[in-house]
Amino acid sequence: MRRLASTVCVITCQYQGVRYGITATAVTSLCFDPVSVLACINTNSSLLQPLLSAKKYCINLLSQQHAPISQRFSSPADAHQRFTLGAWQEDEEGIPYLADAQANLFCSMDQTLPYATHQVVIGRVSQCLFSDTVSPLLYQNGAYAIAAPLPEHFVS
């Protein structure tokens, strides 16, 4: 799976007044009608139980300058310490989101499916926020990477 390049995301929720979040790369669009996304979350993740209880969350698509935030959210730091790095805000329902992320997808949990070591979470997107720039942070072959357009001679 190391060869599968993925956009780096941080999935966040708030449950009983506590913010939770993890770094995730197993996130993809699922359907256009209804607009929905799919995320695969390890059953041992600190986010899973609060997420299943809260049922509302945000998928923050990180930009290339957010590598330190990705590292913070993939470390064993306490839940509240993860949010001390970055421009975090809360929406009207208290869901934390990264204000300068490439995009924020606010979701309501629609379905879940257990599979081996993970829980597949399908969410309906209720709101999207987008930044003006497109500079996704990617993860491939065990390292952070950036996307760059191919020269014309590669695509013609």
UniProtKB/TrEMBL annotation:
The protein's GO terms of the molecular function aspect are: FMN binding; riboflavin reductase (NADPH) activity
- UniProt xrefs under Pfam families: Flavin_Reduct
Keywords on record: Oxidoreductase
Q: Where is the Flavin reductase like domain?
A: 1-146
Q: Which InterPro entries match?
A: Flavin_Rdtase-like_dom, NADH-dep_flavin_reductase, Split_barrel_FMN-bd
Q: This chain belongs to which protein, by name?
A: Flavin reductase
